[in-house]
Amino acid sequence: MADTLLDIEPGLAHLAPAVGVQLRGLRTPLHERILETVRAAMRAQGRSLTGGQGRGLALGVRTAVDAFVDAVADPARDLAATRAVFHALGRTEYREGHRVDALRAVLTLGGREIWAFLVAHTTPAGPAPADLYVVAGALFGYVDALAGAAAEGYLDEQRDAAQDWATTRRRLITLLVQPEPPADAALRAAADAARWPLPRTVAVLSVDGDDAEHLGRTIGGGAIATVIDDVVRIVLPDPATPGRLDRARQALAGRRAGLGPSVPLGRARLSYRLSGRALTLRRDGVLRTDPVAGDEHLLTLLLRWEPGLADHLADACLAPLAGLRPAARRALAETLHGWLRRHGQVVAVAEDLHTHPQTVRYRMRQLRELFGETLDDPDQRLVLHLALRHRLGAP
């Protein structure tokens, strides 16, 4: 907004002083006329001047009228205080859920009424038509400036509210995924602050990027999102709701993402951790779908949870094969893996490996010599199976 009315309409510098004196004399009836017009406009919007915003707008009308008539008489006077009033009104408009153009419509109507009032009270003695044109230019420029100040206030409040909401959502999500489940009272308080009805179940998505607000809004369905550790974390409430996961997948098309399992609210951290690990394996090229559904790759997640652990497991468990030539080592490893998967059914193993059953029996005799009683121990067979699955990259 301009600093003075003279900045808006330079012609005021040459206005006859009597015009300003005449306008000041009309101050009281002008208040009444404009307030009645504003009341009617607000009633048409389903609002009134009885609430907090109404009282504020009534004050704004009086302030605007007073500032205008005084500025016509003294066009170099500072309008900063008036600008501040309408900036605050713009903020209140946002907080009360009104549209940004609602206040502008009221201001425009008020400006027209001021002009109609001034024309109606023009006497043969003055002001001259040329002076009226100058006043008109100042008036409508002034109304635009007030509307601009209100719009700035509205947008400032919108931005601040967005920042507050982002902080509130981040606090809630952080609480949900912390190592220890939060106390019920703390969780309810955080959810109330975020205006997020607590669901019975949740699933967490971890997504490459930093556009948390955009993704949460696009997925919808009550999804809340924030950035934690440079990854967008999205909490989906009640993911079994028909269409909710499908909508999330559509929103994430072309994005690397991991989807944690649906879990009770108190176990949100498990879904969070699995989704994050799934995303890491997607980045590493181990898993290739988007989003990677953790529930569909639990064994892979288990084997690769601690980097290097699966390699160490394979080295330790498959040490009896280490001294063999690479081709023989590979053949025996594949045979042992097939034997474990097929529960010792030689013919089925042979079919899987596209070899003769006698070859499988021969290799199993070798493996018996190498591994001994380990092959008869159920727990050891499980560990061998995991080690071979990792080493062979088998499904």
From TrEMBL:
PANTHER family: CARBOHYDRATE DIACID REGULATOR (PTHR33744), DNA-BINDING TRANSCRIPTIONAL ACTIVATOR ADER (PTHR33744:SF1). Residues 22-177 form the PucR-like N-terminal domain. This is Helix-turn-helix domain-containing protein. Residues 332-389 form the PucR C-terminal helix-turn-helix domain. It comes from the Bacteria. InterPro entries: CdaR-like_regulators, PucR-like_N, PucR_C-HTH_dom, PucR_C-HTH_sf.
